[in-house]
Design brief:
354 residues; two-stranded antiparallel ribbon; 12 helices; globular; binds ligand 9Z3; Major facilitator superfamily (MFS) profile domain-containing protein
Length: 354
């Protein structure tokens, strides 16, 4: 039960009212019951999740950083986007040796963060530790070292960027330095699905104050399944004990409280990933219908960097990169972010007019 949303009712009173109303379907404080029922139906057990899973160890530090970042940009009237990026893990042991993982590399989120910065947004980049990050994503692996040359002259070593690499490094470096000099990007890292949810809710709590200026771009590949804390062993599972039987539970749908309770005025964009084309639109529409948020970006695992569908209440818009554009290194995220920013502007204008 989301007790806090209904003032003047104690936990016990609420339980009593709910039971009465369920039995009789007609009771005195009907309006309250109706509202309560709606909250109960949409929230599932998200509160239980937070009640049984402890926050990550660096949670308070991250919360302070989020608060400072949002307050600073709020004072300046900036739009703020929360970009979530990368996959979440589901640990199989408390002292984690093994875990269930998600495929996401973090390309969607890290590239999008760059384009939001270009559009003047302050960016909270909430990402899976060690997944791709804005700017450094361009020089993954050995690329950066390959761009450097070393000169040794009488005990004086200098390192320089090779002349033919300057054209690749300079534009990225200049965007990186501009974003950091302006304090326009905050990095927050998670690993497990539980850490992700704690940070997501904390970010929403501070973003709520930005009202319609806040944009949520939920591109992280979040596990639909998890193992409740009480059901996982403390220590490494031993093969001598035989094959483990692992029961995964459904993760509560956080989009429901997020849209309705945590950031009710923000512009919320979720992502839908499928591997079967015929499910893509129906499932995206079902999500819009269920959560009543603003937009779903639908993509297929197989060609997610070449084609997406922007699904809103009124339309499906395709964004497509040609093979040539893809080979030339174009990012489909430039197009996605462009479309979203324009919808977000309409949302803002609409909210201000009201
Ligand atoms: C996405 O669909 C992202 O676009 C990708 C990006 C994860 C495919 P990469 O990081 O990939 O560039 O490698 N994110 C959301 C995936 C997700 O978990 N969606 C759930 C669902 O489809 C819940 S909203 O049901």
């Amino acid at each position: 039960l989301y007790i806090e949303t209904i003032p003047n009712f104690s936990n016990l009173k609420l339980k009593h009212l709910l039971l009465c109303s369920l039995k009789t379907r007609d009771h005195r404080p009907y309006r309250v019951i109706k509202r309560l029922r709606a909250v109960v139906t949409m929230s599932g057990s998200w509160e239980e999740f937070f009640a049984t899973h402890l926050p990550p160890t660096d949670f308070e530090d991250n919360r302070s950083l989020l608060k400072e970042f949002c307050e600073r940009h709020d004072r300046q009237g900036h739009r703020i986007v929360l970009v979530t990026s990368g996959g979440t893990t589901v640990p199989l042991e408390h002292n984690t040796v093994r875990f269930v993982d998600n495929f996401s590399a973090g390309k969607r989120g890290s590239a999008s963060a760059e384009y939001f910065l270009d559009q003047g947004y302050a960016v909270i980049f909430m990402h899976r530790l060690k997944s791709l990050e804005p700017f450094t994503r361009h020089f993954n692996g050995q690329k950066l070292l390959d761009m450097l040359e070393m000169q040794d002259e009488s005990n004086n070593t200098t390192i320089r960027v090779k002349q033919d690499s300057v054209f690749a490094l300079a534009p990225v470096l200049s965007r990186y330095q501009a974003a950091h000099a302006a304090g326009a990007i905050l990095h927050v890292a998670f690993t497990t699905v539980s850490e992700y949810f704690w940070l997501l809710r904390a970010a929403c709590e501070v973003l709520a104050k930005s009202g319609p200026r806040a944009l949520l771009y939920l591109a992280a590949a979040v596990s639909d399944f998890y193992i409740p804390k009480d059901s996982i062993p403390t220590h490494k599972m031993q093969s001598e004990s035989g094959p483990p039987v692992i029961q995964l539970h459904l993760v509560p749908k956080m989009l429901a409280p997020l849209v309705n309770l945590w950031v009710p005025n923000a512009y919320v964009v979720s992502f839908k990933l499928e591997t079967e084309e015929n499910l893509l639109i129906p499932k995206s529409r079902a999500a819009l219908e269920k959560y009543k948020h603003k937009m779903v970006i639908a993509n297929m695992l197989q060609n997610r960097h070449q084609r997406v569908l922007v699904v809103t209440r009124d339309a499906n818009q395709e964004i497509l990169l040609s093979r040539e554009e893809l080979l030339a290194g174009a990012d489909i995220e430039a197009g996605i972010v462009g479309v979203i920013v324009s919808h977000h502007s309409d949302h803002l204008a609409h909210s201000e007019a009201r």
